[in-house]
Amino acid sequence: MSVEETFAGQKLLALMGAELTRVARGEVDITLRFRDDLAQQSGALHAGTVAAIADTACGLAALSMMDEGSGVVSVEFKINLLAPAIGKRFVAKGRVVRAGRTLTVCTADVIADDEKLIATMLATMMRR
Amino acid sequence: MSVEETFAGQKLLALMGAELTRVARGEVDITLRFRDDLAQQSGALHAGTVAAIADTACGLAALSMMDEGSGVVSVEFKINLLAPAIGKRFVAKGRVVRAGRTLTVCTADVIADDEKLIATMLATMMRR
Amino acid sequence: MSVEETFAGQKLLALMGAELTRVARGEVDITLRFRDDLAQQSGALHAGTVAAIADTACGLAALSMMDEGSGVVSVEFKINLLAPAIGKRFVAKGRVVRAGRTLTVCTADVIADDEKLIATMLATMMRR
Amino acid sequence: MSVEETFAGQKLLALMGAELTRVARGEVDITLRFRDDLAQQSGALHAGTVAAIADTACGLAALSMMDEGSGVVSVEFKINLLAPAIGKRFVAKGRVVRAGRTLTVCTADVIADDEKLIATMLATMMRR
């Protein structure tokens, strides 16, 4: 499946209102507008929301470098929440660090309103 | 805020239909029934959904051991997705590993249909 | 290579004076006696020392469940340093959480003087 | 303690023959020459060796941005081993991603022979 088809199949991202806003070789951006129903108790985005868009950006960035016909699955990821996820628009920028035959390692930075880094992820994706 | 109040304030968890099903000192369970709109392209729960309930279980387990009046924020977490998140009912069991003055380290196992371990998390939470 | 042969080939562990003290299916213990030259600036074991024995315990626990002729390589690990690594004797207890065809996920707890948990690791190992 | 004094107090790094080769605000490089006694069973550097220099580069990068009189301790780190640590000379480049009052988040890339990225770390450091 292509990056676009894979994204379209991720119903959680549709539920959240996320959009696929950039696809290049090894680089994928996912954009999310703030919605109150994606927040935690203090009104910022929930860490699970931030993780969802960052994981998806990583997975699709990995997929963008795989042979046609490949699918991608998350093996594991680690995310640091650097600042409260407050803003109107959040972009998760997934980038491939190293593409291997089986495993691809990616990072994603999540940026609020084009200026504030609010989270960073380091993830391992697997081709299948 | 109490564990129950904090959970009630997490709108993402309400959007997902998650429930707070167990609260003990240092131990919190979050239960989620499968819904198609929480899935990824293959039909299993999205890693972001799994991370959301595991992170919440960790955060609330940490909060359950803090002084009254404390709040909790996720510093970082790492999750391994061990098997496809396929099932009817998922329980994220958050447990405190070490409670410190400022930082509390927790794990969460996510179990499908009372029998299959599908993910495990190691997380750092901060009191504020 | 067997667990014992693999351990014997790890010269860093010999340099540190670490010993392989338990091997069972999916469970390996590595024991290290405190030495001043393995410490950091405050006199506790360096996080790199703690990570070295925990990573080795994870890798060998994974190897213990693989087919004969397999080798093991660390894909990634995350470690939380829970308390200063102060003590006379440290045991890193590696345990397999899930053994897959290609990837095996392990945890390791590092315990000082048989009583104090000073670190915990969550790691991904690969068969080759 | 200064970055230089803190490095000088880390006896593990002396045992490994590592050197502090660059200190700037928020950026610290640690350089290590390959030695056979720092290796694992296949002859590459042990993951524990790689983690030790990366963790130190992260910790000292964090320390370089803290008030005088501060010390630094590793809360946790995650490292992906991207390629076998084969080479003559390894540089761990620690960089601060976000410096907070209590916690500082850092990354470190480990580069072999000035050209090959062999590992990347994402770490949380604490002031004390």
Note down, in words, how this protein is organized.
A six-stranded antiparallel sheet of chain A has the order 1-2-4-5-6-3. The mean pLDDT of chain A is 97. Chain A has 128 residues and is an alpha+beta fold. Chain A has helices spanning 3-8, 11-16, 47-63; strands at 19-24, 27-33, 72-81, 89-99, 103-112, 116-127. Chain A has one domain: Hotdog Thioesterase (Thiol Ester Dehydrase, Chain A). The A-B interface holds A 1, 5-6, 9-15, 36-42, 45-49, 51-53, 55-56, 71, 73-81, 84 and B 1, 5-6, 9-15, 36-42, 45-49, 51-53, 55-56, 71, 73-81, 84. Strand 3 (72-81) of chain C pairs antiparallel with strand 3 (72-81) of chain D.
Summarize the structure.
The first copy, chain A, is of the alpha+beta class and 128 residues long. Helices cover 23% and strands 44% of the residues of chain A.
Low-confidence stretches of chain A: none
Q: Assembly state here? A: homotetramer
CATH H-level name of chain A... which superfamily? Hotdog Thioesterase
In helices, the fraction of residues of chain A equals: 10-25%
Order of helices and strands of chain A: HHEEHEEEE
Strand content of chain A: 35-45%
Q: What is the overall shape of chain A?
A: globular
Classify the fold: give the CATH topology of chain A: Thiol Ester Dehydrase, Chain A
CATH class of chain A: Alpha Beta
